[in-house]
Fold each of these.
Amino acid sequence: MADDFKVYAINFYNFTDNLNKLLVIPKSYTYILALYIAFTGGVVAQSFKVNGGVTASVAIVLGNQNQTLKGNIAAIGALRYGEAALESGLSFSLGQLLKRHTVKTKGAFYAYDFFTLLGVGKNDNLLGAALIDITPTFSFNPNTSGTFTGVGFGFQKEILPNALSVFNNRRGKLLLRFANAQHSIAVTFFNDLRFGRLFYGEGTDYGSTGALKVSYTEIVARNEIYSAGVGLELFTPKQDYTRTPDNGLNSDDGRKNVWHTLAPHECLFYTNLYAFGAYQNTFYNTAAKVGINSEKMGAFVQNTLHDGSGLNPRFPWDVTAKDKLFFEVEGALLYTKSNDD
Amino acid sequence: MIRKLGYCCVLILVLTGCETYTTFYKETARLSSATVKRAQRLDLRQEATDSMLKLVPKFENLRSLNLTARSASEIDTVLKLVARPELLRVLILDSTNLKQLPESIRRFSNLKQLALNHTPHLDFQTAFYTLEGLPLVFLNLQHNQLTVVPEGIGKLKHLTDLNLSHNQLTTGFFRLQAIPRLKSLWLTANALEVLPEPLFQLKTLKNLYIEHNSLSHIPEGITALKKVWVIHAGHNAFTELPEAFSKMNCLLLLHINDCPIARIPESYLHKDSKVAGLLLDNNQLSEKAKRYWRKTFQHFFILSL
């Protein structure tokens, strides 16, 4: 028995190192993830309750800002010991890009997304899958009746081709989840800044930066689930750190410091305020987003954050630009596998 | 209690939002009878004098008025014609030949921002007495060939943001101490070779902008600025990251690009250093040093070397 544990420990540390190299993530996360995988692998005592699922999908995304073809694999698992619960999810996407962030470009891209929640309650429904942002697909467990409240952190990164690669910044996520039987409410706050050791953004303050997503998910039948919610996401070009931030745009008539931005995407701004919905059964998943793209709103939100902290200059949003429609639809064919010990 | 506080916060946010939208996010209109009803921002830089006199009184919702490059007499006339002066928040009087501010400016009882850039002939001391009592929070005095901080600036008791960039200031900085709420001070491009000691007595200051000067050293006295948490000091002559910044009480973010900085002192590793964001683009750090500091500062919330 002792020998077994020794072997396990060596493998564990090798595993965390390899995982760290693969995903370029902090060790605090890799330890949590490795522990989770070890537990779900059955190494621990019988008093633990383990649920897990894996979903593989092939999806097409069509919209006026994003158009992609991609394959995706997502795994989620929940572990609990009495009322203490741990939930983690990991997703990886690989695909062909046609349009991203309103820019038409062709090339391969990939993305990953990871989160971990700690909380209290009988967390068995696996609806934490709603906290994975790069795909709307779910693994879920309909045979649950407990409640769960959890808080956690995560991060995601997208690696884009060509000139868009400048926006390959990693975003940290602060997560909240409240669940009751077949229902779940999830809140995700994204930012690319770093806060402490757990909020693991890239620390760049450009590209996809701040975002907020609130979703409600419900398991409606053994093989059916739907989700709905609202989101707000901001995108700005890269600021030119070598120029004094004296841009006149969005400067409140010269009162505020405003960055100049870098070519070739110096005017690439958007702010989407949207509602979204998704439906999934055994074979497919469909999702849609619709809302407005408003530079005025983006300026207001980001100015409030930047002015409030007083830390960084503003971005030159065109505050007089007219609002535009934002829409996106996604369809995916699925293969799902789950277990419930 | 918490609910009431929440309502108050939402109310303040909504009201602030409305003020921001109406004052700054509306399109700036040119003079025309078609824009009279809805215009809240009006640009009179290139309008004929006759049209101004005829149409300005019909604009009843003006929040921002730009009178750049108009003559002193035109400015006085237009300011007298504005129909509802209590609504105006922003007045821009750049590139004028004003020698005195017209008394008519005192009609604007809620004026928050005033720009007097490129007005080198203005008697600033008298101007500040004229502006006394107005709730100005921002004054823009760039490109005025000032060599001394003008006397009387302390009369502007509501001022929080003051831009003195692109002048040749060398003395008179003690006068800034009379501004009780000063939070942001721009001294960009003033050919400063050393930071004047009186600046270190600005106890309310939070943001200090000193780019494009000739600074090569920051005195320890800057540590007296207990509330400053952002400094922009790019385009100066520093050869190492000034150690004094690492000893400041709450300096969080330091922009110090485009200097010949080749060294970062070890004091930035000390636990007393509050710096947690650093932008050091276009300096002369070696690649080896960059790698070392990227790793060392990996917990910074923002970092660019």
Amino acid sequence: MSNSISFHPDSSLLVEFSAGSLEVAPSICVSAHLHFCRKCRVEMLRLDQVGSEIMDTMEPAAIDDGLLDSVMAKIDSPALAPSEKTISKNIEGFPASISILMKDVESALTWRSISSSLEISQFETGQSDFEVALHKIEAGGKVPKHDHEGSEYTVVLKGSFSDENAVYREGDFLFRQPGDVHQPMGAQNGECICLSALSAPIKISHPLGFLMKPWLRINPM
Amino acid sequence: MLKKKFEFVDRQIENPSRGAILNLAEKRSDQWSLLLVTVGETRDRQAFAKLFKHFGPLLKSFAQASRHEGWIPGLGDDLVQEVMIKVWNKAAGYNPEKASATTWIYTVARNCRIDMLRRKSNTQHLPLESEDYWHEPDEDTPVSLLSQKHREEKIQFSLSKLPREQGEILRKVYLEGKSHAEASQELGLPLGTVKSRVRLALQKMQILVAPEFQDEFSHE
């Protein structure tokens, strides 16, 4: 990984998000960052314009006349009247997607203690390549120095934390690869909540795979 | 062929009957955006049919270009149907000041394609639809519509002028749905080369916010 820290997703991630080719878990992280960052929202709108322009310049395919009739019949059907999707209020200024994930958990979030200053609450996102979770670092808490077995996307949702390289504030986006050793520390003035998507260390389904969870292992070094 | 269609639509909307449309016509004058506004405001089926005749074939091409794992060509008609029904249902929420109809419909199509693929490949409970992480353009985007239109035209022009290899990668990503890593494998190029070609293309099209303006656009 380069030494320069940008705090934003790199342009290839934004392009993949705009094109719809980015996997679910990193998409949730990019989306969460967009909630906080207007610069990236501006770039995203322009990227969507690129996508629409590429679609617009395609050779139009022939379509069956019957297709319009069938769509016309369907929009008449009362069953397909626009469904009023309940717009859930965002939780504490969190991105909409995170609020939905948090509400999807039947009861309140269950926090699991990983170390004295770090708690984790895992989300069910319907896919298995990544572990998506909220990480909570208590004020002034030091997370033991650790390495990552998979790559990890992180977005700060609330508060701030720091490591050897920088201070990360609300909305900041981080990408870490295996081998990036670091020691996060929560800011003194309050707890810090981060969204994290951690890729599986082992992609193939290992017969004892269930024993591998949780993927984030804090091994003091 | 396409040109003929444009002229046809032009004649149809030369004499808009509603003041609201006239106002919008001054702001965003492309015919598809006007038709989409009409569909949203008055549930006009004829206007919807015109949108269908223009976008249906493009959506089908878009669907057929997909090379996603698990995507089968027969899904083309399904995508056209699903997108156009969404267009009908969501048209009232379309705001022409924020995006052209083409951009708006592209995002609906992209999201539909993701969701169709996920429904096919996954029987697990999926709490999020792709729409849940799609952000509406800001209420307070300082970029005026005029400069936005200018931006669209610029993208249109510069896209057509990109070196072949840059355009090729963008089409692979946007149409075929390949990630940069997959594109690099298929083209037999290092990942870094693919990424830098994309970056060069974005710079040429002036997609990225220049460093000197980044503070202005920073976190609120």
